[in-house]
Amino acid sequence: MFVFVMVALLICTEAPGSSAVTPVFVQTGQDVFLDVNEADVPEEFVVFLWRFNGRNNLVSVSPKSKPNILGDYTGRIELSEKKYSVTLKNLQNTDSGVYTARLTTDVVKTLAEYKVTVQDPVSPVGLTVDSVSPSSDSCNLTVTCSSVDSHISSTFTCDDTTCSQEGGERSEVTKSGASLQVYHLSNASIICNHSNQVSWTQDMTKNIWVFCPLRCVAGAESHTSVCVVKTVVFSVGLVIMVSAVITVHLMEKIKKKN
Ligand SMILES: *[C@@H]1O[C@H](CO)[C@@H](O)[C@H](O)[C@H]1NC(C)=O
Ligand SMILES: *[C@@H]1O[C@H](CO)[C@@H](O)[C@H](O)[C@H]1NC(C)=O
Ligand SMILES: *[C@@H]1O[C@H](CO)[C@@H](O)[C@H](O)[C@H]1NC(C)=O
């Protein structure tokens, strides 16, 4: 029997796979469920195997025995109620690769195939305003968004009511394969978003008008109110200062007269 199985495994050619490769992204330290449709497994077969990268076997199942967890995978695999599906626990970067469910009958058939990519969560980002150049009818603002291994700059031009981003939304793929994006929201906040398939972090500026304070035009309500407050504060300040100067001046004159 054993020899027969070996021969069968050697000479059997791979039957065309019934399934396409399913991409799965998992955060480092988390689990992944590798599902097999039980209806695809006939009552009679030689062996069912979960295989990693076409080489290492994780689990084997024979028709009349319990699933057998193999080698290194002891303690790292949870069997499910569905007999052929498994959960791989606490994934690390080295677990990235292709997991294949192989069924051997008189031919070898692939029942399911998953391309698992294990990713670390992305690092935090910081968004800084590098320069502001206001003019009478517009304001240019340049920002830089930095992560640990990458940075991206972008310039925004804002008129009375709207802002536009030079060259459109900016994005860049970082060395670690994540993406760094800079764009603005309709409320004129600028956002930097650092993301990969399993996580994202972001930083945001205040409303662009906070950085372009010279502009006091009607339009976007949010910046009008800021401008009104600034104007009032500035005017009141000016009045107080001028009054103080005049008062001091008057006092001195009065003193001299005496
Ligand atoms: C803002 O940038 C645009 C395009 O680069 C330029 O034409 C304009 O003069 C700039 N405005 C200011 C106030 O610097
Ligand atoms: C950042 O990007 C990710 C992936 O594209 C997205 O799911 C997430 O909602 C974005 N976050 C923000 C604040 O836009
Ligand atoms: C702009 O909108 C975003 C998302 O809706 C919000 O988190 C942010 O605080 C807003 N910014 C301002 C300046 O209102």
Low-confidence stretches: 1-17, 217-222
SSE series: HEEEEEEEEEEEEEEEEEH
Radius of gyration: 33 Å
Q: What is the name of the CATH topology of the largest domain?
A: Immunoglobulin-like
Strand order of the largest sheet: 1-9-8-3-4-5
Number of domains: 2
Tally of extended strands? 17
CATH class placement of the largest domain: Mainly Beta
* Range of strand content: 35-45%
Major sheet: 6 strands, mixed
What is the overall silhouette?
A: rod-shaped
CATH homologous superfamily designation of the largest domain: Immunoglobulins
Terminal CA distance? 127 Å
What are the bound molecules?
2-acetamido-2-deoxy-beta-D-glucopyranose
> So, CATH architecture of the largest domain?
Sandwich
Helix content: 10-25%
Average pLDDT number: 84
Report what the structure shows:
By secondary structure, the protein is of the alpha+beta class. It folds into two domains: 102 residues, Sandwich (Immunoglobulin-like), CATH 2.60.40.10; 85 residues, no CATH class. Strand 6 and strand 7 form a beta hairpin. The protein is rod-shaped, with a radius of gyration of 33 Å. The protein binds 2-acetamido-2-deoxy-beta-D-glucopyranose (3 copies).
